[in-house]
Design brief:
The protein is an alpha/beta fold. The chain is built from 13 helices and 22 strands. The chain has an 8-stranded parallel β-sheet with strand order 13-12-11-5-2-1-15-14. The protein has a 5-stranded antiparallel β-sheet with strand order 16-17-18-22-20, with helices on one face. Strand 7 and strand 8 form a beta hairpin. Helix 12 packs parallel to helix 13. The protein starts with 10 loop residues before the first strand and ends with a strand.
Length: 427
């Protein structure tokens, strides 16, 4: 890993087009930009008060609709504003010490991408930018409006590298690489060294759903990938009262830390919100205790810390419920989210006071269907994560421990968990 600042990073992830209430479709050609990106500046102090240190932005580049159908990688989407709005937002982040992560959709483009329009007209050079089949251009996972790039084409490699450097030059700190699992490792190996040569502190995280995460990082030359396996195990184990599933996932997760620190999360712009996924509201603390008590680079999806609900559905516009507009500033938030925000602040605070957790290895020290003890260990310290989904109080076996860092409910005995309780202790 080239970036050392990532050891202290906790991301607040935003889907900008939804956050600012932008139009569903691209503005008509030659429309004046609508300067909405600056609305995010009103939320930067909120980000810091939550305990986060980085702003992870969803797509901000010109696109046809949802942002993942890019039409111009070098232009801010007019629904959000223009390059000056971007520079102002980055400057406001810099003033507060906030890192900025951009979303790069380099597996595919929208059909209005100029080079694809030329390819449709038969331009031989443009056609080399894309993959073709008997029925026309290859698409991304069956979405005809998303045209797959040919990643073996040197011109595509050069363009993506130039795009990455351009926005890093303008102040971004790294890239989330959308659908990285669809892109050949050789492409990232060809592109990233040149970018790193000019920006050695940049951080690159690939979107990977399943598979051998560590091998992907090594073979593609990335710094990290998204940890979907742990995400699924957290809510599934809590709903099913089956901590064996979570223990297995945590052990696999811990082994990854020998190679890299995964990007961990309970929610993002592509999945049902954690408040809607969990069958019991009082299990949110358990989920956060795992997210912030084991190794990795944590990310909080904007709104999850306010108990936002939303179910992703598999149809057109099925993501809308998890990508809603936000108020102009935090004063417009409903009061019902305050307790969940405070819970996030407490547990993020624990993580901030123990930054070594980013690279911690985690072992399972006690396990039953409804009780679990995890110990995350660093060079000179450890944190004990205790969880129960039992309907009755449960005392865990005698385990070495120190003071309480955070808990769902106080008890005289630190190893005694109340019904559906959780606790973090020093090791």
């Amino acid at each position: 890993m080239s970036a050392t600042w990532i050891d202290h990073a906790i991301w607040w992830q935003v889907y900008p087009l939804g956050f600012v209430g932008a139009e569903r479709e691209a503005l008509p050609p030659d429309s004046a930009p609508v300067h909405r990106l600056g609305q995010l500046e009103h939320w930067l102090d909120y980000l810091l008060e939550l305990g986060c240190s980085g702003l992870a932005l969803g797509p901000v580049f010109a696109a046809g609709s949802h942002g993942y159908d890019t039409t111009d990688f070098l232009r801010i989407d007019p629904r959000l504003g223009d390059e000056q709005d971007f520079d102002a937002l980055v400057g406001a982040c810099r003033d507060r010490g906030i890192r900025v992560l951009l979303d790069g959709v380099f597996n595919h483009v929208g059909r209005d991408f100029p080079m694809f329009r030329l390819a449709e007209q038969g331009d031989p050079e443009a056609r080399r930018w894309f993959r073709w089949g008997d029925d026309g251009p290859a698409s991304f996972e069956g979405h005809d409006l998303l045209v797959a790039l040919d990643h073996a084409e040197p011109a595509v490699q050069d363009h993506v590298g130039a795009v990455m450097r351009h926005w890093l030059d303008r102040g971004a700190d790294g890239w989330r690489l959308d659908a990285a699992y669809q892109v050949p490792h050789a492409f990232w190996r060809a592109v990233l060294p040149g970018v790193r040569a000019e920006h050695p502190d940049a951080w690159f995280v690939g979107e990977v759903i399943h598979g051998d995460y560590a091998a992907f990082v090594i073979e593609a030359g990335l710094d990290s990938v998204t940890q979907y396996e742990l995400w699924k195990a957290v809510w599934s184990a809590l709903n099913d009262r089956n901590f064996y599933e979570l223990a297995h996932a945590v052990e696999r997760h811990s082994a990854m830390l020998d190679t890299f620190a995964p990007l961990t999360f309970l929610g993002n712009h592509d999945v049902t919100r954690i408040a809607s996924r969990l069958e019991r509201d009082d299990h949110l603390g358990h989920a956060l205790a795992v997210l912030l008590g084991v190794g990795g680079v944590p990310s909080i999806y904007a709104g999850d810390e306010q108990a936002f609900t939303g179910v992703k559905e598999e149809h057109e516009f099925g993501d809308d419920a998890v990508r809603p507009p936000f108020p102009d500033d935090p004063t417009g938030l409903a009061t019902f989210g305050a307790p969940v925000r405070e819970l996030h602040q407490r547990l993020i605070g624990v993580r901030r006071r123990h930054p070594w957790l980013t690279h911690a290895r985690t072992g399972v020290e006690h396990l039953s269907n409804t009780t679990l003890a995890l110990r995350s260990t660093g060079p000179d310290a450890s944190v004990l994560v205790l969880l129960s989904t039992d309907d009755a109080p449960q005392r865990l076996p005698d385990l070495p421990h120190g003071k309480t860092l955070a808990e769902s409910e106080a008890t005289d005995d630190p190893l005694l968990l109340p019904p559906h309780g959780w606790r973090l202790l020093t090791g």
